[in-house]
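Researcher: Good morning. I'm working through a list of sequences from a screen, and I'd like to move beyond sequence-only analysis. For each chain I'm collecting a predicted structure so we can compare shapes side by side. This is the next one on the list. No need for commentary yet; just the structure.
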Amino acid sequence: MLEKFVIIITLLYSTVTFGYEDTKIREIIISEVLSHEGDKLVKTQKELSKYGIRNFLLIEYNKKFNKNYEIKSLTEDQAREIAEHLLTEYRLNEIKHSYSQMMIFDIFFNGGYNAGAVITQRALKRYRPSENIVVDGVLGSKTIAVINSVQDHEKFIDLITEERINYYKSLTSWELYGKGWEKRILSYRTKLKEMAIVDINNRI
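Model: Good morning. Structure tokens for this chain:
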């Protein structure tokens, strides 16, 4: 686990220092987010999912790109393909700070688009109250611009972590999945803070 973490940090730092292509950043982000998902078919009251890809997203993807993927036989490579599409579809690739992009993508991937935007906007509203951010569940150009203007990353990390946990606690499924969700959320907070300590340029 520690070795994996070191590799991820090294690659992210290399991206900043040596100018790796955006595709390399996406590979790192998607690998980290999917590492929190299982390869088993999960059945909830509403739908099926696998590798964190919910069936309704799969249907939309198939229709848009003329694919015939099926949720029950979905492969990891297919899940990565869909995740990469979602990263750009949600405009999260426009977030300049690669690790913040990773953290926020995990919120969207795990909680859905609307929840991801709401949680992010609530955190930004607390971080930068003077911006008059509207919490409308849409990640638009203004929200992205404010994310890209963040300077105090540790404060932003704390706020977005608090907002994410508070949001999940409001769900009826918190009792069933809460421990796992909280562990996942806090793992990103820990990694980001560890990066802040070792990064002499305070980029996180």
